[in-house]
Specification:
This protein is an alpha/beta fold and 311 residues long. The protein has one domain (4-310): Alpha/Beta hydrolase fold, catalytic domain (Rossmann fold). Helices cover 35% and strands 19% of the residues. It starts with 11 loop residues before the first helix and ends with a helix.
């Protein structure tokens, strides 16, 4: 179905200028290279924060995990922290793709940000990326005194595949009972590996930027031969009680809107304090239109949610 008439007019330029992206095994490396080229030209905002790339320990003693650490130049003592995961379908992406926004979070909230350069599929399918996520949560807790953060005020956040990891990590942390998570911020998260394989899908979603075909390729790459579980696909969790408060945002034309609606409903029915915002006329990745009113609104909504949860 043609859904162009439903798109917010300020976002049409993104559709016109975004290169056609056919996600498959043959095109993946080229798409990764193209994304790195675009990222190399990124301009960072002149904010009073400092950014550095660090290596943290992993459960594999012969390997470390790369991360981007962002801190305010004048960081308050015992401040909050945000453990962040980038998007990219679990097959591409890196922390720097969100660096301008994360720098703004650190500046506005006075908090520490750790964005994880987790391993990517298909080279490292599940559970490898989630092991990296949990190891990063462990490191933040173990180093909380050195980093000057309050381990009771650590939030997880991410968009798309990163939102999926934040949701799954919230479930994993609850089940393990080692490290508390104070809040989960899920932006257009892909939560359900089953929904794209079922018939009767929403015909008004998934036409632009991130398609149903791309999503199916990425799920197959990420899951590999593993049996899906709640730690890979959050919607598979049978019990959503006792999870951290959640903020979920998604576009009305986004491929993931239906699974976000279902997951949010289940969180609410499980007694989890939850806010959901659906942006009309918006497809997956609509924030590429940086000056659009809806993009600015979504950024303000995200910052407000983080402030309310952590400050």
């Amino acid at each position: 179905m043609d859904t162009l008439h439903l798109v917010d007019p300020e976002l049409l330029g993104v559709i016109d200028n975004f290169p056609k992206m056919e996600m498959n095994a043959g095109s993946l490396q080229g798409l990764r290279d193209m994304a790195r080229t675009v990222l190399s030209a990124q301009q960072l905002p002149p904010l009073p924060v400092h950014c550095r790339e660090i290596q943290i320990p992993s459960r594999d003693h012969d390997r470390t995990i790369g991360c981007l650490l962002i801190q305010p130049d004048e960081q308050p003592s015992k401040t909050a922290a945000i453990l962040h995961f980038h998007g990219g379908g679990h097959v591409m992406g890196q922390p720097q793709m969100n660096q301008p926004e994360l720098m703004n979070w650190a500046n506005e909230l006075g908090c520490l940000i750790l964005s994880v350069d987790y391993r990517l599929a298909p080279e490292t399918p599940f559970p490898g990326p989630m092991n990296d996520a949990y190891d990063a949560l462990r490191w933040l807790n173990q180093q909380s005194a050195v980093l000057g953060i309050d381990p009771q005020r650590i939030a997880v956040a991410g968009s798309s595949a990163g939102g999926a990891m934040a949701a799954c990590l919230s479930i994993m942390a609850r089940d393990h009972g080692e490290f508390p998570i104070a809040f989960q911020l899920l932006e257009a998260p892909r939560l359900d590996d089953k929904i794209q394989r079922q018939g009767g899908h929403n015909p008004y979603t998934g036409e632009f930027i991130w398609t149903r075909e791309a999503s199916a390729f990425c799920w197959n790459a990420y899951l590999g031969t593993k049996t899906p579980s709640a730690y890979a696909s959050a919607a598979r969790a049978e019990d959503l009680s006792n999870l951290p408060p959640a903020f979920v945002s998604v576009g009305a034309l986004d491929l993931f809107v239906d699974e976000c609606l279902d997951y949010t409903s289940r969180l609410i029915r499980s007694g989890v304090s939850t806010e959901l915002i659906i942006y009309p006329g918006c497809f997956h990745g609509f924030q590429l239109a940086k000056e659009a009113a809806v993009t600015i609104r979504s950024q303000d909504d995200t910052l407000r949610a983080l402030k309310n949860a952590l400050i």
